[in-house]
Input
Amino acid sequence: MVAESSCAAQIAQLRAQGYVVLPRFVPREALVELNEVARVQLDRRETPLEFEADLQYPGAPPSRSAAGGGTVRRLLDAYARDAAFAAWGTAPSVREWMEAYFAEPVLMSRAHHNCLMTKHPRYGSLTNWHRDSRYWSFDQENLVSVWIALGEESNANGGLWFVPGSHRMVFDPEKFDQAKFFRSDLAQNNEIIDTALSPTLAAGDAVFFHSNTLHSANQNLTDRVKFSLVYTYHGRSNPPKPGTRSASKPEVAL
Ligand SMILES: O=C(O)CCC(=O)C(=O)O
Output
């Protein structure tokens, strides 16, 4: 159970900053199990997978047949992969937090995030500045993602960067490129990007962030794969728009 006062303070921080770190969110034993399952599933290359070469973000191998072309970016559909992953997607601590934030019953999307993100040394790509809601279709751009670090995360291994307060900023469409990345060739955008922070996460820490918070991540310059479990939530009164990718998979009521 989440202590009421800390939950309220975390929610206030997410509303103000667009993200909040929850230290020691996953206890040690559960973390050991999540790491074991993650490594076994990556070793066995259990499908469904998304490859770096398919996405072509900066630093990715040019094709699946090129050197490093088999580098996995995401183990998709974390919820269906293993009971340990599913349990954290629907954990009581997540439900309590999300219900307090949305002030109504909450659903987990299986169409967005719902994955085990991996970032590999050498062939793992960097992700430019973006808002997750760029491709998501809901009446209100008000969703929250939970990013659980299965190991330590920092800029050195491609940890996330966030622009504090950016979830409330209003931008002209031309501030984004055709792929809806926030353009870093514009001086005004750079003033905003320059305010970004990269929280260092310990294994088991989580970062909760708003779907409109600008974020990015560099490449992994260490020699170890980084693993993060990521899910996204929204309130019941804000369902995905019918016929869109956001509505393409049944959701999970918490
Ligand atoms: O780990 C990364 O490269 C960033 C991932 C990310 O921002 C996303 O999938 O939306």
Notes: The CA atoms of residues 51 and 72 lie 4 Å apart. The first helix runs from residue 4 to 17. The chain has a mean pLDDT of 97.
